[in-house]
Specification:
The chain is an alpha+beta fold and 215 residues long. The chain has a single domain, classed as Muramoyl-pentapeptide Carboxypeptidase, domain 2 (2-Layer Sandwich). The protein is built from 6 helices and 7 strands. The strands form 2 sheets. A 5-stranded mixed beta sheet has the order 2-4-5-7-6. Strands 1-3 form a two-stranded antiparallel ribbon. Strand 6 and strand 7 form a beta hairpin. It is globular and about 45 Å long.
Length: 215
């Protein structure tokens, strides 16, 4: 989910635009229908415990380049008998604003035990688990895993165990993280240190952020 300043390129938001996808965005389902989607922020199974503003439907949208690169990675995975499931793609900036508002409300801790059991929610931005500027808002980033494999921690667990190179993983989870990372890197994606599930397309570093509601 989070994207550091270097990879986000400190990109400024795009100019004012209608609340509709730009022409260079596509539904992932139209490019790679074989990839399963479990869009967590469109429902209640997330660290807020409720649907997040900006997700009109449970559909993954991405920049066209990122969608095709992800499709290539999925094709390689399929040749190994594996398949992807995507948890998030394009994220409207209004969603990030909702995360900020949530972090500033100390009373709203309904999902602490599930998503940040060892951390104070007020520290999540400073620790790098949530970003004020994210490559998700450019349509260049995707959160995903491989169906049926153990990665040592669930999606969006804000904890050191979720770090891409956390040293105390069981061997199976370490191999699975390396497998996912290899598939994504060969397709042109870069990983994020804090989260084994987050990858952003390197070719789109510095792309503008957007705030349209994903239909």
């Amino acid at each position: 989910m989070r994207q550091d300043a270097r990879r986000s390129g400190e990109a400024a938001p795009a100019a004012a635009q209608p609340d509709a996808p730009p022409g260079n965005f596509v539904r992932l389902a139209e490019v790679a229908p074989q990839i399963a989607q479990d869009m967590r922020y469109a429902g209640c199974e997330n660290f807020l415990g409720r649907p997040v503003p900006g997700y009109r439907s449970a559909q993954c949208w991405l920049r066209r380049e990122a969608a095709h690169a992800l499709a290539a990675a999925a094709q390689e995975a399929a040749a190994m008998g594996l398949s992807f499931v995507v948890y998030d793609g394009y994220r409207p900036q209004r969603a990030t604003r909702a995360f900020l508002a949530w972090a500033q409300d100390p009373r709203d801790v309904a999902r602490k035990a599930d998503y940040y059991p060892r951390l104070d929610k007020a520290d999540l931005f400073e620790l790098g688990y949530i970003a004020r500027q994210s490559s998700h808002s450019t349509g260049a980033a995707v959160d995903l895993s491989i169906v049926g494999l153990d990665f040592g921690s669930p999606f969006d667990l804000f904890d050191p165990v979720s770090g891409a190179d956390w040293p105390h993983l069981p061997d199976e989870a370490r191999r699975n993280r390396a497998l996912l990372r290899g598939l994504m890197e060969r397709a042109g994606f870069a990983p994020l240190a804090q989260e084994w599930w987050h990858f952003s397309l390197s070719a789109l570093d510095g792309a503008p952020a957007h705030d349209f509601e994903a239909p």
